[in-house]
Amino acid sequence: MRPASFEFALTFLTRRMAGLARSLTVACLVMIGLGAPIATAQSPFSAALYVNDIAISNYDVTQKMRFLEFIGASGANPRDRAIERLIEDQLQLQEVQRLGGRMTPDQLDAGLAEFAARAELTADEMLARMAEAGIDRETFVSFIRSGVMWRELIQVRYGPQVDISDSQIDQALSVESVQPVTEVLMSEIFLPSEEQFAEAVQRIIPQIQRISSETEFSNAARQVSAAPTAAAGGRIDRWVDVAALPPAVSSAMETAGIGVVVGPIEVPGAYAFFQLRARRNSRSVPASAVALTYYRVGLPGGRSERNTALVDQVRARVDLCADFPATVLQAMPELPDAAVVEITGTQAQIDAATRSELERMNAGQVTANLVQNNELVVLMLCRRTVAGESVPSRDDVRFALMNRALEGHGMILLQQLRAEAEIRYP
Q: Which domains does the chain have, with CATH numbers?
């Protein structure tokens, strides 16, 4: 039997539930993020603040808020976020202009096109959609101008200082560099926040907060949720990366116990509740996509005292894989050069005994636990890498690492400019 308050709520919600189910989709609510009403008493063209005596108007702030919401980056405090971004944009532009930087029309067109292409749109299509959202062209152009000119400045100033080594590329391509991802299975309930539903929703909220089982949450979702998942008891039947959720949800889901209900969380047009059903951490790298690079050499005579002593000698003298062949051949000059073999293969391509040894090793370690064909097998693991068609090339990785290093230099310079700037409010 349904709780009385749920029945009461249903009498208020039924008339508009079908329309809400279409409009309050999960994707829309999550992508929009947390919002807050905007209220300004000042003239839109009066100064909201000054950055080194350059005025930023209330209109600029409103436009930036709309732009950040448009690209899904408005955050929990849209006005504060917009002001911070405008300060950064102005400091970047002032520094570029101080050093004589200029932007050609072709560079601007290329920047507009590149940004629009990320959403699979042309620049004109992107501008048209922004216009529908109340964002003027100059707001978009200003964003592109400051970003492109700042990147060029950082490239010219710091590019010669950045040197990406082969070992850094190896590390970036290694399995260890794949960061664990926290994923969750969730169920959801969305309640409309419109005024005509306020009394009913306020009766429902405490009951949802007291739910302690998946069955109770599922029943409640079927009865009152305005989301399309209501018919399925609010279940989202796929693993969701918590990093893709709004901050208020992701922070709770990373630590909440199974069965815990998180909410209500205010989103535009609704109050959201989420129940954690399961959580896991995964690097998302299957064994078939892991490639191992290692050296192998067989020492005749098996596990003899001499061979054991030679292995100890090699282990003490070798720190890098590049030194392994020469060290082994110096210790055992009777071995032919071809006895030391460098091998790269996926886990599925390596024999079980060798694979088991390598699985327990860290890169740079040397072991000699196997004896095959009366030879003591000496192994040195060089690296584990992610293999497959989707893996970027070494040139692509080098470029990405260089960009990351330059971004770091840019952040430091921007912090210095911010510390030296005069930022004041009327």
A: 33-162 (1.10.4030.10), 176-282 (3.10.50.40), 287-386 (3.10.50.40)
